[in-house]
Predict the structure.
Amino acid sequence: MGLKTPEQYKSSLRDGRTVFYRGEKVPDVTAHPVIGLAVKHAALDYHMAEDPKYRDLAVVKEGGSEYSRYYLLPRNADDLRKRSDLIAAATREGETLVVLIKEIGTDALYALTMTADRMAKAGKTEYKDRVAKFYQHCRDNDLAVCVAQTDVKGDRSLGPTQQDHPDYYVRIVEERPDGIVVSGAKVHTSVAPNSHEIIVLPTRAMRAEDKAYAVAFAIPVNTPGVKLIASPHGGNKNNEFEHPITARHKMMETLTVFDNVFVPKERVFLQGEIDFAGLLALTFVRFHRFTAVSYKLPLLEMLAGAGFAAAEANGISKAAHVRDKLTHLAAYHTTVRGLIEHAASTCTIEEGIAVPNTLITNVAKYHFAHNYHQAVQIVQDLAGGLLVTAPAYEDLTSEATRGYVMKYMGGAKGFDAEKRLRLLNLISDLTSSDYGGYQEVLAVHAEGGFEAEKLQAYREYDFKTVSAYAKKVAGV
Amino acid sequence: MGLKTPEQYKSSLRDGRTVFYRGEKVPDVTAHPVIGLAVKHAALDYHMAEDPKYRDLAVVKEGGSEYSRYYLLPRNADDLRKRSDLIAAATREGETLVVLIKEIGTDALYALTMTADRMAKAGKTEYKDRVAKFYQHCRDNDLAVCVAQTDVKGDRSLGPTQQDHPDYYVRIVEERPDGIVVSGAKVHTSVAPNSHEIIVLPTRAMRAEDKAYAVAFAIPVNTPGVKLIASPHGGNKNNEFEHPITARHKMMETLTVFDNVFVPKERVFLQGEIDFAGLLALTFVRFHRFTAVSYKLPLLEMLAGAGFAAAEANGISKAAHVRDKLTHLAAYHTTVRGLIEHAASTCTIEEGIAVPNTLITNVAKYHFAHNYHQAVQIVQDLAGGLLVTAPAYEDLTSEATRGYVMKYMGGAKGFDAEKRLRLLNLISDLTSSDYGGYQEVLAVHAEGGFEAEKLQAYREYDFKTVSAYAKKVAGV
Amino acid sequence: MGLKTPEQYKSSLRDGRTVFYRGEKVPDVTAHPVIGLAVKHAALDYHMAEDPKYRDLAVVKEGGSEYSRYYLLPRNADDLRKRSDLIAAATREGETLVVLIKEIGTDALYALTMTADRMAKAGKTEYKDRVAKFYQHCRDNDLAVCVAQTDVKGDRSLGPTQQDHPDYYVRIVEERPDGIVVSGAKVHTSVAPNSHEIIVLPTRAMRAEDKAYAVAFAIPVNTPGVKLIASPHGGNKNNEFEHPITARHKMMETLTVFDNVFVPKERVFLQGEIDFAGLLALTFVRFHRFTAVSYKLPLLEMLAGAGFAAAEANGISKAAHVRDKLTHLAAYHTTVRGLIEHAASTCTIEEGIAVPNTLITNVAKYHFAHNYHQAVQIVQDLAGGLLVTAPAYEDLTSEATRGYVMKYMGGAKGFDAEKRLRLLNLISDLTSSDYGGYQEVLAVHAEGGFEAEKLQAYREYDFKTVSAYAKKVAGV
Amino acid sequence: MGLKTPEQYKSSLRDGRTVFYRGEKVPDVTAHPVIGLAVKHAALDYHMAEDPKYRDLAVVKEGGSEYSRYYLLPRNADDLRKRSDLIAAATREGETLVVLIKEIGTDALYALTMTADRMAKAGKTEYKDRVAKFYQHCRDNDLAVCVAQTDVKGDRSLGPTQQDHPDYYVRIVEERPDGIVVSGAKVHTSVAPNSHEIIVLPTRAMRAEDKAYAVAFAIPVNTPGVKLIASPHGGNKNNEFEHPITARHKMMETLTVFDNVFVPKERVFLQGEIDFAGLLALTFVRFHRFTAVSYKLPLLEMLAGAGFAAAEANGISKAAHVRDKLTHLAAYHTTVRGLIEHAASTCTIEEGIAVPNTLITNVAKYHFAHNYHQAVQIVQDLAGGLLVTAPAYEDLTSEATRGYVMKYMGGAKGFDAEKRLRLLNLISDLTSSDYGGYQEVLAVHAEGGFEAEKLQAYREYDFKTVSAYAKKVAGV
């Protein structure tokens, strides 16, 4: 018990789990050319806990024991701020790619803790203790935990029971005295292949007929019947010169199939209580959007920073339109950062837990998501067409071509061809490649899409007070 | 000495000041049909100090004496937050129109205090005491103070000395042992006709040849040679039904002429120190943009609130596109409010004074200003064409027409014709009238225009750190 | 019979019509201080027909007779182009305000003609001849014709029969052998007080239960029971210096009440044929949005032109951000103009009549409407705060102030104070005043609001072909 | 002489040309795994000429001979419209990727023809005949011709002679009686590895000191000293299921080095005439932006079509926000298409050649470029997160996973898992992958970036007329 080392983390993933990559079962995720990179990336979390530079931020001491700060239940604004800082710091180490192996799992654990508390108050007392024990298990074993929430959904205009197939939302297919059996599948499960545990949450509020779908639980990734089908998007780009980010960092998403999986009772956290399915889903999201905006900050720093550096390298940093565009990037970053910091500062304490200001968090997410593509456009504009037409790494090393490339790819003073190409390749990797597309799609869809953020913001905003003000002034 | 009553405020304005309205000298500003309304509006400030609801917010007790909170030099984030709250509360009382008779003057006083401190440290010791005494004078007499900063400028591509006329920027025309004589004119001087004192600040940094233009001072409005030429924009709309805001509230701007005005030495705060002209101008703006965003909040509340109420009155509040538009208004308001609150929370302490976070303040202002017209568009969209085609107040009272109007102008349940028209008239007054245009132009130009905000944001943003991050990841 | 002179037009309006302004019946619309200005503005149409500069464009010769080009049924692209040019030329004469007294009426006449043709083909033969006769009557008498289409609607989420009051949509209250009796009211009826005839069209498609609401007809404005309640918005601004546009030009909108109005049979064009109500409404809009975009062109020319001139006057035309903003205005104008010209060129011929390309017309309108407020923002930005803080006309003429104003309001070379103020006042009148608000609301709501344009564009766009292309490439 | 077959095209590329890919010289471009795909893609042009479906559009008969329509000098609007249609049709065959092997070359040939004509009129008579002969050579041999225009530029804030290295712009290093020797390099040269000829144009206007840089010429790709260093961006994605577009289509860009290349006199088209360098560069762009917008149309069709199909597949096509987003895509496509068609219709005839309306062409390009990223955002929004998290092709074929994938990836009625994934993979390939980034960067930079389009639009727009209008109305 206690903090895991990076090596312990890696070796603990060799546990017989069922992961498929391009149709083949992966015998050892740590040794796989693509998933292995994701493991290495995720291990950043364990490295940071050992790194003196991050130790105070990454590790909490309580009594005689130490545990990862992610596992600290936030009690006040400062806890939230430190959590946000840690998430940002880890993503900065990940060179714009979030680590996520504890971030998302603890968001779910907070939500389960709060919901179990509410259920206990409503007379459903069995879950509170189960959740607490699972929480301690994860914390004390310093586990990597992923969350499977988004059901495959089939026809999105239909509810769980109206689908062609009853398994389009994960459901309970059998209730036994010692547990439940579940079937169905979830999509977009990030970091599943390199996590220890999977927490399963409902994706939406449920109606009376959806009782079998009101289910939440947690199981080890290697539980029989759990099949992870990994997405090949992005593949591996093992050329650090051309792909400085993605040659070193990777996150995996899976189609996560539950093929008649048995979940023991002590790991079941919701079993048919339809009134709490929506609350649990929503509470998770209240924490998770705060996490999301926190881990977007290094990405926005990078857009502003890379845009600025590219302008320098190209010799255009004095042009008025360039300053205008850089200011836009600066304002974008500052707005998102300012709002998320403010969301922490103005948190509410519910069931003893500090919840980030939900309205402001959603507005921060909305601002981030709606403006991301435009920011990409600006950075691409500042960097130039070489983003997609520059020579290869091998052109810089081959005798036949090196001379030409070094001569002709040079930029403004201080930026020889290699430096300039490295910068442009960074931007290409970040914005004009598979990873660029990945980040765009994440901006639009991760942690709930545009419409989800807008709905939440609409609900949280105090229209009552402001419309009363309007009516008063109108004399109505 | 001490707090003024509203009546004392009004009577104190009958002091022989030279104010022109439509070419005629106004004998008594408090009795003028248009300026008198501005006086009444400004008196809100003195009313609030007497109102138990606002007393704690509006008045500070220090030792045995009391003074207006505006005159409190902010020492920490909480002082800034309360100041912001007070400014917003006063504007809310002003039904979206800022009161401003102390807000702007104290912004200038803070800037003068800080700049005089810096000048003293640089060996120019005479100003510090002068500023302090003037500060006490204003505070102890509970004065209304306006600020004249923007010079008329002539050809804006030219500096002060390059203009066709040397008076296109206010300048010292004579230096005497007992003071200076100044000439020139300032534009956009808000609340000048109903203030006690005018503070004059330079509008920009000055170069060596601009010595005569590096000048700051304060004088009573009724000083000989000071001529205020009031703008007629908006005029008076004395129909509360059709113009619920502007029939009750008004702010005056003037072309403020200094025709060989003598300023006694103790009221001179900058006299040729070109190195401090830019600093003074900028320091004022650092406080004033914070004030500006604070007083915009009730306007944004009103847009969201009136949009929501109009949607209800028209029976469209359930439509998906309407919710989308309302969410946009909510996010707009929340973003600006969140940022300005955060700017207070993350203030810096300089020369012992709490300065709102300059980067965040400018980004808040930028966000407000760039999105205002679109918010207006949305509210006009939700309200409908009756904003500019509705019947008149007299159509509701005339026997011949009242029946038709009451019958046909009715809206959704709970909104009879009168109520609905009152709401729509509020929105018309706010967005589709002289006052609507006034607010749009203010959004674009007041407290420095778009380019000024952008320049400031560009300078304050930490491009160095973020571009170092980009270079590190790029391996440069 | 034949073309009317401006004087004949004016005198023909003294016909006992019932028009209310601010609750009082107007004895003679041509002599009223506000409505009289609208009459004078509308007379531009008759002046143009006499003006050698416009005669070829404004008047059509057919056989031995001449009539206004508005009354030419368009048979090909060139007819549409000339019509568009005429509408734009008249609005240019109206200094950005559309004349509309024949534009809108002929849009309705085209739609009635086409719909009656379709009805005849479907066996309802009586209307075709009635419409043709009414058409000839209007053309041969050179009449001014307004269109009342938008019902008051009450709760917009409810249909005609679900409202609190059955008259919230205009309906037939009695069917007689010689005609029908109608009741109800329409809003936003432009140019009604100075038209000869009112054409009434249904506002939407009707369902089976809405039979009484499926009604279209035309009657003289002075028909008993027709009551026009004029909107006071904008009032009269009779100061040409401060309000160069609105001191000379005015359009009136009314609440148009039908209080048990008898319509003789030969003037009834739809009487319960619910299947044709929607078609008629839509066909009108197909022509009317083309008219709308045509008359917006001078407004967009003015925004670009005034923005450019203001930049010159202020001495900022060389600044990079200014060029960028001017380019935006130029692109905005060019896009809208290019699309509407293209809509004429790619018209379809239906029932022998040239109908502007509906998809492109709606997209042009959408582009115009969505970007109008932003264009206003840019022009206000270029012009400066004097839009709302400049001195009055009387300050330029009064001895006491003239010297100061002439001295200090001067701008860049070639722009003395008077010239600069005239330019800024033009922009203030256009964008930052009652008229500015009027134009903004028109942009959003006139000729169907945002959602109407979008719906039409969605329906007209060929999603079938493009999605087949996508599926083919996808191999589906 | 006459039309080439696809096979003749391919074999003609085995001519000893010097092309490097990842540092290695490519012995046969048609056999290379990546460049070979580009050859196959380019061969579409020759296939279309043989395809009865396209023959009339693709081939022109003149006298007894036939040649590719691209080589027809446009004489009127109809020629431009057909050219635009052909470009769009070819790109549609290329499944959103332009073919370009004749499009760009003929743009340059038109520009050379017009410029040589102007030079002849100015007394420089030698070029006209040379250009005409080269034109015939290309046309009669049905050649693929690329254009190298953008110099590497070094520090973009400096002119050609101010750079660290004199070769940062291509220049004449020696003038001989029989020709010239040139050195330097161009970037972003599209289709160079699979073209027959390279036309070199100056990238900008030149000043007196830039005489050596005022150079234009054409040479075969296999000329000694010409070295093409191909960009590896995108590589090859040979999985048609996951990459339906890029597994079948590819375009290559090169860094095109001229290492002391001798150009015979008859192939030199500009040699030191600095006054014509800017004109030539600009004239090329006037044609090439028209080409550019023409070939973007299939891309915009695809965005709208794929967005629509994805909405169907996901079962969300009835949601209000989805319709709104689809309407936006439709309006975007329609605006760009309408404008470019209108640019053809309103062409000017200069030197006997039809030039597309330059203002409208630039505004069309500006509209396309500024809104592209937002359109991508919408399509990604409609498609969902599976764009970057879907299973692999092999997961559909492997026994172990196929059952799960087929079961869980199903969508709305009519879209089983395979169909849905094919559609989503199309969108992923198009928007969220290397190719997605490529298209984004092209939108921003190809055929001149944002600032180039804006500058051109600013210059072409008639500010004089519109500001005269403003001044007239203002009474100035």
About this structure: The mean pLDDT of chain B is 96.
